[in-house]
Design a protein that fits this description.
It is a single chain. Helix content is 88%, strand content 0%. It is elongated and about 65 Å long. The chain has one domain. By secondary structure, the chain is mainly alpha-helical. Helix 2 packs antiparallel against helix 3. Keywords: Membrane, Transmembrane, Transmembrane helix.
Length: 109
């Protein structure tokens, strides 16, 4: 048992300490931004008492997704690159829809 705990400790040290660099910081910031999209969506939905996707959700999606794409390209991870590249286009398109809706709502009021 102690052997396995030591192996886990060594693995965690390698992953979180030995490999830590500015690219890791970028990846962590990107992941934080990506996570914040769910937080703002959850708060907006709780306030409205229904499922709501606020503008900030798409802003955090695009910001976090783009930074994650840059990180994935640097790390040369084809699975991560493919997923984030497609998602980035989806976030841009949804931001276009949200901006169009905002302009329409402002013109009506």
């Amino acid at each position: 048992m102690l052997y396995y705990l030591g192996e886990i400790g060594q693995y965690l040290h390698e992953v979180f300490i030995d490999q830590f660099d500015w690219w890791t910081v970028l990846g962590l910031v990107a992941q934080f931004m990506f996570t914040m999209r769910f937080v703002v969506q959850w708060i907006a939905s709780e306030k409205a008492q229904r499922s709501v996707i606020p503008f900030a959700f798409w802003t955090f999606s695009l910001g976090g997704g783009t930074l994650l794409l840059v990180y994935a390209i640097y790390r040369r991870d084809p699975v991560f690159i493919a997923g984030q590249a497609l998602s980035t286009f989806i976030y841009i398109r949804n931001l276009q829809f949200a901006l169009r809706e905002r302009r329409t709502n402002r013109a009506v009021t």
